[in-house]
Specification:
heterodimer; A: mainly alpha; B: mainly alpha; Double Clp-N motif; 0% strand; elongated
């Protein structure tokens, strides 16, 4: 995975398959990281407003995404 | 149906819930039943051990199956991102498997439901006990139920290790008769 030759050849590839797969994986990675970070922030008592501000989105957006109904990110008692 | 379960068999069910919780899974699947079976100190778990199935190995294999999904390490390498390095960093902060948990299964609290397949395994354990003319359902019968059901992540682990399910069934049955 740290094979630099492989990295170089893949990065220079014009094959859309390579580029699109990379984008997709990156998006999944971002989503998972965001999930972990938002959860952590909520557990530390952060408000949706504070989280949204740092994520660069509206409070409503982050709330809708992570606090819907009996969602997994509801704060523990 | 649980009233016919032996103490050990009940423990398997209870521990399966713990395994699921420990892995932050919001369900109890066949893989958690298998892990739980391996954690018991019974003739059946001894049979599993003889086939080289240990709790650590199976847990590792299960996490391996679940981890990939849409996170393609090779594709990320094309961008110069080392997924393993990211994983190591994230796990240092958020615990093992943190990056590989499907979103929506973060917080696991309260009652964890059985998957339909795991439920089927428990039902089949009753049938296995009846077939062997046993009045009670032991952990070995759950193991046989697992094999009888024949699919799911637990069976994938067993198959991927090249274990012959028929041989395993025979030895588990023998251990129950002993």
């Amino acid at each position: 995975m740290t094979d630099t030759t492989q990295v170089a050849s893949a990065a220079s590839s014009k094959d859309p398959t390579v580029g699109l797969k990379a984008v997709r994986s990156l998006r999944v990675l971002v989503e998972r990281l965001e999930n972990l970070q938002v959860r952590n922030a909520r557990e530390q008592g952060w408000t949706w407003e504070q989280i949204a501000q740092l994520l660069g989105v509206t409070r409503q957006a982050v709330h809708k995404k992570y606090a819907s109904g009996r969602g997994p990110l509801r704060r523990k008692d | 149906m649980f009233e016919r379960f032996t103490t050990e068999a009940r423990q398997v069910v209870v521990d399966a819930q713990h395994e699921a919780r420990r892995m932050h899974h919001g369900f109890i699947g066949t893989e958690h039943l298998l892990l739980s079976l391996l954690g018991q100190q019974t003739p059946s778990s001894a049979v599993f051990a003889r086939y080289g199935l240990t709790k650590d190995d199976v847990a590792h294999a299960v996490l391996g199956y679940l981890r990939n999904g849409d996170l393609d390490a090779e594709a990320l390498t094309a961008l110069g991102i080392d997924l393993d390095a990211v994983r190591t960093t994230v796990e240092a902060t958020f615990g093992a498997g943190a990056l590989d948990r499907p979103p929506g299964q973060r917080e696991v609290s309260g009652h964890i439901p059985f998957t339909p397949r795991a439920k089927k395994v428990l039902e089949l354990s009753l049938r296995e006990a009846l077939a062997l003319k046993s009045k009670s359902i032991a952990d070995g019968h759950i193991a046989l139920g697992l094999l009888r059901e024949g699919e799911g992540l637990a069976m994938k682990v067993i198959h991927d290790r090249g274990i012959d399910a028929a041989d395993l069934r025979r030895d588990l049955t023998a251990a129950l008769a002993a």
